[in-house]
Amino acid sequence: MKKSAKSKSTYEREMDNPKFRKLLEKEYSELVLSELILAMMADDKVSVRKLAKEIGVAPSVVQSVRSGQHSNMTLKTFIKLISALGGEVAVKRGAEYIPVKLAA
After folding, report:
1. Residue 66: helix, strand or coil by DSSP?
2. Which of 66, 67, 49 is nearest to 58 (CA)?
3. What is the pLDDT of residues 70-95, one digit of tens each?
4. Fold for the domain defined by 10-100
């Protein structure tokens, strides 16, 4: 009797599709970013309005970032947002992390 090849799961079949894989990776990255910001805001007990005022943007911008809807943020705004929450943005080159900071 011949053994049948292991059938692929739906996930495995979908991941074989390059277009699907690329879209999933993009959406996952956006989800991770919004979850990170939500967690940082919760840890600091900071409101949308307070954070928006601190970094000089409309509260709707912070809310859209929190919900994963804001996908066209400037690097400057992103650095301000992360910095206001006590974080730091860095570029990794090889094993080295280079902090990215805004000029004063």
Report:
1. helix
2. 49
3. 767 888 998 999 999 999 999 999 99
4. 434 Repressor (Amino-terminal Domain) (1.10.260)
Task: Enter the tokens of residue 9.
Answer: 């799961």
| Rounded-to-integer distance, Cα 54 and Cα 51, Å | 5
Q: What is the pTM of this model?
A: 0.70
Angle of CA points 21, 22, 23, to nearest 5°: 95
pLDDT digits (tens, 9 = 90+) for 18-64: 898 888 888 887 788 889 999 999 999 999 999 999 999 999 999 98
Q: Where are the domains of the chain?
A: 10-100
Q: Count Cβ neighbours within 10 Å for each residue of 50-84 and write b for 16 or more, e otherwise.
A: ebbeebebeeebbebbbebebeebeeebbbbbbbb
Question: Residue 51 in contact with residue 82, Cβ under 8 Å?
Answer: no
Type of residue numbered 40: M
